[in-house]
Write a structure and sequence with these properties.
The structure holds two protein chains of two kinds. Chain A is mainly α. Chain A contains 15 helices and six strands. In chain A, 69% of the residues lie in helices and 4% in strands. In chain A, strands 1-2 form a two-stranded antiparallel sheet. In chain A, a hairpin with a 4-residue loop joins strand 1 and strand 2. Chain A is globular and about 70 Å long. The two termini of chain A are 34 Å apart. By secondary structure, chain B is an alpha/beta fold. Helix content of chain B is 39%, strand content 24%. Chain B has ten helices and ten strands. In chain B, helix 3 crosses helix 5 and helix 5 crosses helix 6. The longest helix of chain B is centred in the middle third of the chain and has 21 residues. The chains are: A mainly alpha, B alpha/beta. At the A-B interface, helix 8, helix 9, helix 10, helix 11 and helix 15 of A face helix 2, helix 3, helix 4 and helix 5 of B.
Chain lengths: 369, 257
């Protein structure tokens, strides 16, 4: 949260408390503002929150521990399919949400460790290639595990997944208050996801400023030196993969329940790259960067879609470029401009790995002497 | 005198190159032990084998009376041997303080659960780590740069920081690989004082160094390596006059005049 506060332009440095409240206010008010533009925009916000969670998890692996992972979406898939298989008519199993969520997280973490073991000695490009392959393997498994025993239902995917049900409270139902006032289920999902993202930020921040976060940073900056000061790099790498995957798994489970439908095509390589782009675009290695990057890049294509079609119609009379084509074009353009103008990302802040209050307390003692 | 470290017949071969052959030496508790020799003599290889970065082909290290694990750097550090590098290897993007705090890793215990819940034990440990790291920065004399990112420090200060980081692992034996390389006379003088201070505080120091004046002034005993073999081991004054040593450094044998 502190990094997020500091990232607020102008206000963040001058009045952190005001900036903090501003963020909370905007986060709470966002769906109401989006609602004015139409129901689909609230849905887009919901997805933006899921992407935030993915970006936060990937940032932990790539930004903190320095392990370039191009197959991150595989963990999202593991989480989503865990939910889909354990809470849908496909097998006829309907386990409660609070049981599946930790299961999805655990399976994803296990997948993270499974990926981690063979790549322990790899770095940089080589690691990227293997993780990319891993992501594809998981997707192809999902695609083909419908024969001889139908587990994943292949390319058709799994339908009619149970919605999130919090102790009997079904998030997919609108709440009706009185005669003509309803709270749409999209709002309920939004706030639920918001709590999940806030929890993730808190957890990741705590991990960052701890001996674990410092060990990851040490490993990222110089693996040999990290070994020479007694860091067990093998365990720390596996821990990074497992914890990063956990966030992916949780996000995946939420995605499955929210969407009500999962199929392998949601977990393509392009999705992995999209999440990585969010992390790089926002600023690698800091929490605020991941959050802002995910928010901007999840919303930008939708805004484009909304603007590009009417704009082309008024200018040329008909649609020249499909918004989908335009999206890739403008995203690449944004990335190129970013690399040229702000190579460290939108929020290039250096992440801190020690508590400021501890340091200032030490310095105060020092001054008193 | 108590023996702290005993190397027994250490051998290491890289393909056709015998980097170390049958090197045996003993380091006593509380001394400054110099390891010198011409370039390529195997000094740094010896460090790497000792600290677990390489696995030796033969021989063993006995540290504090029991055998050291080979090829497992973190276990060696855990037993109480810390090292610095010839070409400085700091964690570039961490501040000086965070570098030293990272060095404290092996002496702390907080796990994922403790970190996530921020229980009292973890908070206390974190506070102690910060305080200790600051003390160590002051010990090596760079506390005013505590909050400076380490890649922005001057060369001499980076060397000091690396020593502070090694000390944070609470070693009994500190292995310094050419700590004075690239330093001017003033900095070398300060470094000498620092090493003496470390020795006086009860930490045994092992030193690879090319600066002969520093070695002679600082070391209690010196071993000389040449082509992977130990050719002399004694107090500096004796080693200085040793024929084999002079031959190794200046050339000699049948081709010398």
């Amino acid at each position: 949260m502190n990094e997020l506060v500091a990232a607020v332009p102008w206000l963040g440095k001058r009045n952190p408390t005001a900036a903090r409240w501003l963020i909370i206010l905007v986060a709470i008010a966002a769906p109401f503002i989006a609602w004015q533009f139409g129901r689909s925009w609230v849905r887009i916000l919901d997805f933006a929150l899921l992407y935030m969670m993915l970006a936060l998890g990937l940032n932990l692996v790539v930004g903190f521990a320095g392990l370039l992972d191009l197959g991150y979406i595989a963990f999202y898939a593991v989480g989503a399919y865990t939910f889909a298989l354990l809470a849908s008519p496909h097998f006829g199993i309907h386990l409660p949400f609070w049981l599946i969520l930790p299961l999805g997280a655990a399976f994803a973490a296990l997948a993270g460790i499974m990926l981690g073991f063979p790549v322990l000695r790899l770095r940089g490009d080589y690691l990227a290639i293997v993780t990319l392959g891993f992501g594809e393997i998981v997707r192809i498994f999902m695609l083909n595990l419908n024969y001889p025993v139908n587990i994943t239902n292949g390319p058709q995917g799994i339908n009619m997944i149970d919605p999130i049900n919090l102790f009997g409270w079904d998030l997919s139902r609108n709440i009706r208050i009185g005669e003509d006032f309803t709270i749409n289920s999209l709002f309920l999902y939004y706030y639920f996801f918001l709590i999940a993202v806030a929890g993730s930020i808190l957890f990741i921040q705590r991990l960052q400023i701890s001996r674990i976060g410092r060990a990851w940073a040490a490993m990222r900056d110089d693996e040999l030196a990290a070994k020479a000061i007694g860091i067990n790099t093998r365990n720390m790498k596996l821990l990074a993969f497992a914890l990063g995957a956990t966030f992916g798994g949780v996000a995946g489970a939420l995605f499955g329940a929210f969407q009500g439908f999962v199929s392998p095509e949601s977990f393509s390589l392009m999705e992995s790259i999209a999440v990585l782009t969010m992390v790089v675009f926002g600023g690698m290695g800091n929490i605020a960067g991941a959050v802002v990057g995910a928010f901007v890049l999840a919303l930008l294509p939708e805004v484009l879609r909304d603007v590009a079609v009417p704009l082309q119609q008024t200018l040329f009379g008909h649609v020249l470029l499909d918004p989908e084509v335009l999206r890739m074009l403008l995203l690449s353009l944004a990335m190129i401009l970013m690399m040229l103008l702000r190579p460290a990302g939108m929020i290039p802040a250096r992440a801190r790995y020690c508590h400021d209050k501890h340091l200032s307390a030490t310095l105060k003692q020092e001054a008193a002497k | 005198m108590i023996t702290l470290l005993e190397a027994r017949n250490i051998g290491k071969r890289f393909g056709g190159l015998q980097a170390l052959s049958d090197v045996s030496l003993t380091i006593r508790k509380g001394e400054v032990y110099g390891l010198i020799g011409p370039n390529g003599a195997g000094k740094t290889t010896f460090f790497n084998v000792l600290t677990g970065a390489y696995t030796p082909d033969g021989g063993e290290f006995v540290f504090n009376g029991s055998e050291l694990p080979t090829g497992k750097p973190h276990k060696v550090v855990g037993r109480g041997i810390a090292r610095t590098f010839q070409n400085i290897r700091l964690f570039r993007d961490l501040t000086a303080l965070e570098n030293v705090m990272a060095g404290h890793h092996i002496r702390t215990k907080a796990g994922v659960w403790g970190v996530l819940t921020q229980n009292r034990f973890t908070r206390e440990e974190e506070r102690l780590t910060t305080g200790r790291a600051y003390e160590l920065l002051r010990y090596v004399g760079i506390q005013r740069f505590a909050d400076v990112v380490s890649k922005n420090l001057s060369y001499g200060d980076q060397r000091r920081l690396e020593i502070a980081r090694a000390l944070a692992t609470e070693p009994q034996l500190l292995a310094l690989d050419e700590p004075a390389a690239g330093m001017n006379a003033t900095e070398t003088g300060q470094l000498k004082q620092l090493i003496q201070q470390i020795r006086n505080d009860g930490i045994t120091v092992m030193l690879i160094e090319h600066d002969v004046k520093l070695v002679m002034g600082l070391c209690d005993r010196v071993a000389v390596l040449d082509f992977g073999s130990k050719i002399a081991e004694d107090v500096p004054a004796v080693v200085q006059k040793d024929d084999a040593v002079i031959a190794a450094y200046l050339g000699g044998g049948k081709h010398a005049n």
